[in-house]
Amino acid sequence: MASLVAPTDGSLEGVLVARTAIAHVDGLAGRALIRGYLLQELAERLPYEDVAFLVLHGELPSGSADRERFAASIRAGAELTEHDRSIARSLREGRSEADALSAAMVLAEDATARAAPVAERCARVLGRVPSVVAAVAGFAPPPAQWSYARRSLAALGANRLDDASLRALEVLLNLESEHGLSASTFACRVAASAGANAGPSLSAACATLSGERHGGATAQARAMLEAAQAHGDPAAFVRAKHAAKERLPGFGHRVYKVADPRVPPLRAAMRAMGHAPLLETCEAVATAATPLFAPKGVHPNIDLYGAALLGTLGVDPSRYVAAFVLGIACGWLAHWAEVRAEGRLVRPDNEYSGPSQRALPGTVL
Ligand SMILES: CC(C)(COP(=O)(O)OP(=O)(O)OC[C@H]1O[C@@H](n2cnc3c(N)ncnc32)[C@H](O)[C@@H]1OP(=O)(O)O)[C@@H](O)C(=O)NCCC(=O)NCCS
Predict the structure, then answer these.
(1) Per-residue pLDDT tens for 71-91?
(2) Whose Cα sits closest to atom 38 in ligand 1?
(3) What percent of the chain has a predicted confidence (pLDDT) above 70?
(4) Beta carbons of 70 and 61 less than 8 angstroms apart
(5) Hey, whose CA ends up nearest to atom 1 of ligand 1?
(6) What's the confidence (pLDDT) of residue 215?
(7) From the CA of 286, how far away is ligand 1's center (Å)?
(8) Nearest Cα to 126, choosing from 33, 61, 48, 24?
């Protein structure tokens, strides 16, 4: 048996638990590579479909034939039956959007997708994700022939539908498409290692987002931006938070201890949207906070700018988790396929801290 390394706590921080060819996040250099390409360049330059193709296939589409085949598979999966739409809608009653989404994600895969070869299967499941998100929210299904980003904009109930808004959302989806072993991706891998189908593996991933430590940061950042706006002086607001030793949502990252490389492309795409008061507040908060928090390695992160973008698009904070799911779905599917190909069940060891063996009353050891 291999020698065991005891992690210092339950976070698995610094513990190698997998080998992957999909992404490498270098927190000290402030760099994320997806299949060897810089995430921020992919985000700035490509449509979501090309990024998803890369994440899933390991290479960029080589030409229009690859693109058309991939788009056709996404379209083929897009439609949700009326029966499944009503199941998804009913899950929302009495539950948070994130809880409902987690259960509904099973609906992203059906028998037809399951019968397809793995690459085709992933594309079909990906194609259905915006339909599941829309159904949970009670929105009409976004037309299958629309681009993934446009379907996502509709599935989130955005009220700004112009080209610059669409592109800004696409940049956010690209930036969230894959980011190594986040808690959700790890959960997806664990389910996949047991041989779970893609739909339930996405559900397992999605379940981690219903907790505030992974999925809740963007909505908390939105509330903070609104509080800073209401305060009237965002810089004074930040100074008061700092003096009170409060944590600012949308700042800091477990892996990045330098500036989050996902922020500049998102900020640039948002600037192209024109007047956006939430973005102005976001910039004022980031400018005031940086000298106070940067010495500790705490910088504005993608959730801060994501919150400003989604708020500007008119997306309700209850749907911020759904926005993340729409972006990262291709990454989860790539990890699902990678682990499935390995065919080995995840079964780590634990250190036992309970009582040693003892006798039941009336018995002796
Ligand atoms: C993401 C997060 C959990 C990572 O934390 P971490 O790497 O474990 O960092 P630590 O908790 O060890 O904090 C290190 C120091 O930075 C400070 N810090 C970390 N995040 C901070 C934040 N958002 N605002 C202010 N200070 C922060 C801590 O108070 C601590 O200071 P101290 O050394 O004086 O006690 C943390 O930054 C956080 O809570 N961020 C807010 C929520 C968020 O935006 N999450 C989404 C990340 S994509």
Answers:
(1) 999 999 999 999 999 999 999
(2) 252
(3) 98
(4) yes
(5) 253
(6) 82
(7) 15
(8) 48
pLDDT at 1: 47
Pocket around ligand 1 at a 6 A CB cut-off? 217, 247-254, 293, 296, 298, 301, 303
**The pTM is what?**
0.95
26 membership: H or E segment, kind and range: strand 23-26
Residue-level pLDDT at 10? 82
Q: C-alpha 71: how far from its chain's center?
A: 22
pLDDT beneath 70: ranges in the chain: 1-8
pLDDT at 254: 87
Structural contact between residues 114 and 197, judged by C-beta atoms closer than 8 angstroms:
yes
Q: Does domain 33-210+328-342 correspond to CATH entry 3.90.370.10?
A: no
Q: What is the spatial distance between Cα 205 and Cα 198, in angstroms, rounded to a whole number?
A: 11
Structural domain spans, the chain: 33-210+328-342, 217-312
Q: How many angstroms separate the alpha carbon of residue 228 from the centre of ligand 1?
A: 19
pLDDT at 4: 65
Ligand 1 centroid – CA 247 distance (Å): 7
CA–centroid distance, 300 to ligand 1, in Å, is 11
Task: Report the CATH number of the 217-312 domain.
Answer: 1.10.230.10
CA atoms within 13 A on the CB side of 285: 34
Supply the pLDDT for residue 11: 85
| DSSP H or E segment with residue 23 | strand 23-26
Q: For helices 198-207 and 183-193, what crossing angle results, to 10°? A: 150
Ligand 1, atom 44, residue with closest C-alpha = 250
Question: What is the distance in A from the centroid of ligand 1 to the CA of 18?
Answer: 25
Kind and range of the H or E element at 31? Answer: strand 31-34
Amino acid identity for residue 255 in this structure: V
